Amino acid sequence: MNLSLPVTRLRRSTAAHAVPRLEAGLLAVTTAALVAGGIARLSGAAGLADLFWGLGTVSAAVPAVVWVVAALRRGHAGVDLIAVLALGGTLAVGEYLAGALVAFMLATGRALEGAAQRRASHDLRALLSHAPRSARRRTEGQVTTVPLGEITVGDLLVVGPGEVVPVDGRVESAAAVLDESVLTGEALQVVRRRGEGVRSGAVSAGGAFELRATATERDSTYAGIVRLAQQAGAEAAPVVRLADRYAAWFLPLTLAVAALAWLLGGSAVRAVAVLVVATPCPLLLAAPVAVVSGLSRASRLGVVVRDGGALENLGRARTLLLDKTGTLTRGRPGVLDVTAAPGRTAAEVLRTAASLDQYSPHVLARSIVDAARARDLELSVPADVTEEPGRGAGGTVDGHRVFIGRTGTARARPAWAEAVDNRALLDGAAVAWLTVDGRLAGAVLLRDPVRSDAPQALRRLRSAGIERLLMLTGDRAEPAQEVAAVLGLDGVHAELGPADKVAAVRAERERAVTVMVGDGVNDAPALAAADIGVAMGARGSTASSEAADIVLTTDRVDRLADAVAVAQRSRRIAVQSALGGMLLSLAAMAAAAVGLLPPATGALLQEAIDVAVILNALRALRPGRAGRPALTPSTEALIHRFAAEHDDLQDVLQAVRDAADRLSDTPGPAALKAVEEAHRLLTERLLPHEYAEEHQLYPALAPALGGPEATATMSRAHAEIGRLSRRIATHLELARATGGLAGEQTDDLRSCLYGLSTVLRLHFTQEEENYFSLAP
Known about the structure:
Blueprint lengths: L5 H6 L1 H5 L2 H23 L3 H28 L6 H13 L3 H25 L1 H8 L4 E6 L2 E6 L8 E4 L9 E3 L3 E5 L1 H4 L4 E5 L3 E2 L4 E2 L4 E5 L7 H11 L6 H28 L2 H10 L3 H20 L2 E3 L2 H7 L4 E4 L1 H5 L5 E7 L5 H12 L5 H12 L8 E6 L3 E6 L2 E6 L9 H13 L2 E7 L2 E9 L6 H10 L4 E5 L4 H11 L3 E3 L4 H12 L4 E5 L5 H6 L2 E5 L5 H6 L2 E3 L5 H36 L5 H19 L15 H16 L1 H16 L3 H37 L6 H27 L4 H28 L6
Parallel strand pairs: 11-18, 11-20, 18-19, 20-21, 21-22
Antiparallel strand pairs: 1-2, 1-3, 3-9, 4-7, 4-9, 5-6, 5-8, 10-22, 12-17, 13-14, 14-15, 15-16, 16-17
Helix pairs in contact: 3-4, 3-6, 4-5, 4-6, 5-6, 5-11, 6-12, 6-24, 10-11, 10-12, 10-23, 11-23, 11-24, 12-23, 12-24, 13-23, 15-16, 18-23, 23-24, 25-27, 26-27, 26-29, 27-28, 28-29
């Protein structure tokens, strides 16, 4: 039975963790007194037994008086007063055994709470202790160790094996192998190549590497996380403050019941028994331990929560507002499609465009280069490269004058180019036109793709009780509506500035507890205006992280769904433990008041209640049943393998679409040759991939997803892909036998190709959203 105020110690967790020796000493003294008294009583020395038990009672009464005085100085007439009255009462009426038991409960309760708090906040303390204090800076060939505060942007640093990356920076060596588990919650190692960004807090898991600082200590990722962690638990959550109010109400009730027991029963012993069992320990212990356990659990998942109030509010949220770029989408355009002019191939267009764009700093240029490298296209070295801001880049590639970017609209465009314009309008995509020697050669369509984990995350959020999902974005209405339709959002507010976002957040707050999720500087005011602001901290701005109540340290929006599940479970456990424990305590008080529960027995009963409450509150540390399915390491490896194959197979999907387009535009030998090439790619690469998924990936996923029926729909898609591929093969066999395609064959073959293209793209997207997003 712990009669101190753990809420206060939660606010001063550092001080609480600094007194484990006092807790251990008090427990040792009270235990020794209780045991010595028991031995004396069994030996027939009743007087000596009472002496030992009385000394144990006094040893606990002294610190209890100190706690009461300290509480009164802070203006709190806390329930520590009940402990003092119970200990004094047992001495006054000669119930020395009961006094010794109360003293023992006081010591064990304090020790149990301290251990629970230390265990629950272990991950938060580990986060703080992980923070680097210095860095090794290379200057003029020499490496010196300097305080972290002296590092400036542009400094060249050396990070050795096992060392923590001190500040955000860019890899200057060939590569760096990093363990980012402290930031992301995932134990997988990642490789960052030369020129790629690295966040502070990651640990070098390979050899030493050089890092060019891109931020100071204060502006780096890990420093922001540490600042949030230092505030975690600094403020009492609403459920904890509720415990404070109930504790204040419980004190006069206890005194009244004890007085009535004495007056009506005529026995001071009954009053002492009431005081012994009348502790609100379950109420005081449950809320802080459950909240801190929830904070700890969230930190393991890569979710840093500013304080217990944010966690508790998150569990009550009913409206979720999301920024689009970088939150629902990846925040960087990807290649949606590549269209080639007649006589050229999509691979040739992409390779030429990427060869030139290697030297361009534009964000679209980087996406084109990445897409070409992902398809293993061999890039040429361009010459005479020039950049025209706002228009594009030009240069010489393989002896031809090449330009990639915007083109004028004065001249009439060919039909294929008009089709590209129409598709860009329909898909909300940007177009980078490729000209070779002054003539249009092709086009690359780029669009910021929806995060693969976003659809599943939003479904989980709805199932967790989020009733309204709205998008707030500064982007144009057309692409915003496209993303909202794909994700099934309840509404879209497009073309908003920072002030408009704040106004929208305030309007939603009037309806329900509101969460705002964003990642950019322009999102910071809206995050601050919401009941709970959530920043995508992995790539978000420092301003948004500073304004947020919660930071997702891994670049996955589905971690927000994890955080909501943790918040709801922590709040449920806190309330459950508090109410259950209080009902048991009230029942014990009633029994003691009518003389059914002697002081010594009541003390033992209350101790059992306290232990049960603490153990129940600590359940918040464990993962609940809701959330992402648990995957075995071998299943995760399969997911990563097939996800990589999806990237490699993009050219096959493009070839199928190109063959269908060729057959529509100019049916003939050239179109038939394109169909044959597409079929070869299907047979040699795509169909073996689909077969392996059906017989390796899906059986491995079935146990985690609830059985084979969970993948039945996707298996049906595999069957349809196989059927269409066989139908295309039959058309090709007929064409070889007759020397060409008949008219009725052309229509059906074109339908098969377009149908297969559509099924493949939908199937790939479904697998990436439903299956591949499950793995880290």
